[in-house]
Protein: diguanylate cyclase
Amino acid sequence: MFNLLKLHLNKILLIISLLIISIFVSLSLGDIKSWDRIDWLDVAGEGGCAIALATWMIFILGSRPQGRVTDLLTLGLGFMFLAFWQDTLDEFIQLPNSLLWDQMESIAMPLGVMLLTYGLYHWHQEQLALNYQLRKRELVFREHRAFDQLTLTGQCEYISQQLASYKNTSRKQSLVFLMLDINDFSHFNRQFGNQEGDRLLLEMCELILLNLRQQDLICRYAGDRFAVILPDTSLTQGRQIAAEIKQAVKHFAFKVPQSSNSQFQNLSIGCVQWRTEHNNDLALESTEKLLERANFALLKDKPIHLASVSGLA
Ligand SMILES: Nc1nc2c(ncn2[C@@H]2O[C@H](COP(=O)(O)OP(=O)(O)OP(=O)(O)O)[C@@H](O)[C@H]2O)c(=O)[nH]1
Structure:
């Protein structure tokens, strides 16, 4: 958040400067009120609103890149904040009634609301475009607590929810479920550090996403393991997609600062089918059983055949 705030240093400095100017102008043109003339309820109400608006600005500036939408939102909130700030100052400093400065908040507030509304409209447009790109990460619901902070994909329970909702809709085609795991990822972590490991996980996730269709969904199952749901897909199609993902990962030259050589990874993938009611199977198998089968298929795909070691075979 602080890195993003640094990007907006000029806006933050402008707002702080306006605050200071408004204090100086009010002090030079008005008289400080005596203690008993201060309406503390107004101070709490107007000051509280000013603090709330300043907090909104910090959240917006701390979470958004530079650009038109951020400028509009900040300007809108900034004007509204200045209006409440001036209102709060008026509780402490008596300005002459005839003074135009005293009317400042009557102009700043509607101007702020208009700019904020215009900014929100463009934010809405921007979000629609982002939603389109995010579809492969979040099909129907957004709850940031259920999302992995590193890859911004759903976590384990999100997969179960999506599978359960798929089961409740009557589909003609089967679903294919992929369980993907980076081979020897702990070795990569040991060699280049966890920070580079995090970066690799993120880029792997992006690469897998690029090889998926619009209707597919990727989630981070655990550690270096991802799950992919391919709705309305035959087993042949699912295997084809899995093979394409493997090829893409195999040829992905990942650069690390510690080495001049690119690092290449391999994925193991378990590919299992969930048949529809038309094939008489979907109702029979629980999501737990499907995940168990996918994990087992993944083990079978590992270079060293762990399935035989674990006795699952
Ligand atoms: N950098 C990083 N490492 C993680 C994260 N989550 C889990 N890990 C590491 O991922 C590694 C997973 O280890 P294993 O399950 O043995 O997987 P592996 O080394 O790829 O071994 P195989 O799957 O048998 O090929 C462990 O070393 C974890 O510490 C994470 O969020 N970031």
Residues 156-308 form a domain with the Alpha-Beta Plaits fold (CATH 3.30.70.270). Residues 309-313 have pLDDT under 50 and may be disordered.
